[in-house]
Design brief:
alpha/beta; single chain; about 35% helix; globular; 10 strands
């Protein structure tokens, strides 16, 4: 049984329909890349999964129907979101940001600090004083502090310096290698996605148009649906 099952998902912003037919699934311990050009519905799909926007269709997590559940209940079921734009609590310290999301489990401030040593070094600094890359690490650490079964990363490396991007990709690879965490990752870097993902789902104009093993993703498909 899939941990997350999405089928025939539809969603709108007012009168403007954004999702028409999105389907994807994620199994325990699997990393799935959600791909597509800008504006094709990737972030809207994440918002629908987390019920930040109303939707129609199949939406199940660990056997439970997510439709009509509030976002905080979905988080407590075990979905940890790293949203686009980081959204750290600027006036709180690194330690306080992490503790604000803490739930019992293997992820603690110590284990997050081991994954991202920069956060351990800056534990008493306010989030507003961190660099963009450090804030992104903090957003990932905060999501891990919820001890999720599924981690969703929405453009976690966008706009960051190359060295910081490498640190974050290395951390994601470590999560895949060393934990049983399921991950849904949205990013534009095909090279890095291919290195960590088991499968990919591609969206085009609010619908799923391709799904399969990452190694089966051909240049023709990426040129058609992902390339600039």
């Amino acid at each position: 049984m899939s941990l997350l099952e999405v089928g025939g998902l539809k969603a709108s912003y007012g009168s403007a329909q954004a999702l028409f037919d999105v389907s994807l699934s994620i199994s325990e311990g699997e990393v799935v890349a959600l791909m597509g050009r800008n504006g094709m519905g990737k972030t809207t799909t994440v918002r629908a999964i987390c019920q930040m926007i109303s939707s129609q269709g199949v939406l199940r997590f660990a056997g439970q129907d997510l439709q009509r559940l509030p976002s905080h209940r979905i988080a407590r079921l075990g979905i940890g979101l790293v949203p686009e734009g980081r959204r750290c609590f600027a006036g709180l310290t690194v330690q306080e940001n992490l503790l604000s999301a803490a739930r019992p489990g293997e992820w603690t401030t110590q284990s997050v600090g081991a994954l991202f040593p920069r956060l351990a070094e800056r534990r008493d600094q306010k989030a507003a004083s961190l660099s963009g890359g450090e804030q992104q690490m903090l957003a990932i650490g905060r999501a891990l502090m919820t001890n999720p079964r599924l981690l969703i990363l929405d453009e976690a490396t966008e706009g960051l310096a190359p060295l910081v991007r490498q640190e974050i990709w290395a951390a994601i690879a470590r999560l895949k290698r060393d934990t049983g965490l399921s991950i849904l990752v949205i990013d534009k870097s095909l090279k890095e996605l291919s290195a960590i993902s088991d499968r990919a789902v591609i969206l085009e104009r609010g619908s799923s148009v391709w799904a399969g093993a990452i190694e089966d993703l051909s240049p023709e498909v990426t040129d058609r649906f992902v390339g600039v």
